Amino acid sequence: MTQSLTIRRPDDWHLHLRDGAMLRAVLPETSRHFARAIIMPNLVPPVVTGAEAAAYRDRIMAALPEGHSFTPLMTLYLTEDTDPDDLAAAHASGLITAVKLYPAGATTNSASGVRNFDTVRPVLERMAEIGCPLCVHGEVTDPEIDIFDREAVFIDRVLDPIRSTTPGLRVVMEHITTSDGVAYVRAGDDTLGATITTHHLVINRNHILVGGIKPHYYCLPVAKREEHRLALRAAATSGEGRFFLGTDSAPHTDPNKESACGCAGCFTATNTLSILAQVFEEDGALDRLEAFTSLNGPAFYGLPANEDRITLDKTAPSYPDKIDTGDGPVTVFDPGFELCWKVSGDQLRTIG
Ligand SMILES: NC(=O)N[C@@H](CC(=O)O)C(=O)O
Ligand SMILES: [Zn+2]
Ligand SMILES: [Zn+2]
After folding, report:
1. All domains of the chain in start order, with CATH
2. Which of 79, 303, 312, 331 has the smallest count of CB within 10 Å of its CB?
3. pTM higher than 0.95, yes or no?
4. What is the mean pLDDT of residues 314-323?
5. What ipTM goes with this model?
6. Position in ligand 1 atom list of the atom nearest CA 263
């Protein structure tokens, strides 16, 4: 049995770091393991302009603990007022790596998102021209559509039309949760990729609802039926280049989660690599973990894979159940099973 596994240092292609005290508390949970991450721009107010992205990047770098090396890959939040010239300049200078599309009202802090997709068509055309990828939160917001169907309907109503009217636009379907998402990405050409989260490989909707409501398993897109979880696992562990890790680690304080109107988001930065090693081992795919965490993402984004390596050892990891953030405690995602892989050299936290 494999006792130790060395892979290229991973990247996280979808991460929420927030700002202020929360940023300072959660950033080390990512930067202790990951080399780079695509930083989501859904702050309040959102990161819309190049200048705002530069300022946010500086705040992230200022919050980085000494001795950690980490590169935040910045994104802009697409609005109906986005200036294509500002976007193009931010992309050309290397300041931003991608642009994020939130349908207005689809998820946490998405009020400034897009209502009418026709209004952003010129921006999308410019992005196709300059080779700037579009990351998409793929859920419709139509109140008539059942929340469990919102991803599949988004593909037909929004994503496929955008892709066919904007040829060449590189698109990442973020945090896919359905076999429909998997099938759509597989059927596409090489301008299409998808991130898969850690938690969607582990939980289905029963985990949220059976035996009492579990607010820490509530995220968007919401976890679906077991058959969808199995499709995601098959895609993630397949080694296929279209699928790569985007944890969507999304911290909210316990009072904001354990509430009559609880926030959406699972905080998985702390134990993601331990969970993934176990998932891949269970599925007989440990040899494909590196493709998912460290190779497919850079290849899609046209970036080199990281040169440094991390080692995972077959031993129980130790980490706190909660991270203390200064804004309040944030509960670390509980996979519901004992973890048995640990990132080598991982230190016990000084916080939490
Ligand atoms: N995934 C979530 O449930 N929440 C994210 C937003 C998002 O990625 O949709 C957040 O910012 O909290
Ligand atoms: Zn999202
Ligand atoms: Zn997210």
Report:
1. 4-343 (3.20.20.140)
2. 303
3. yes
4. 96
5. 0.99
6. 12
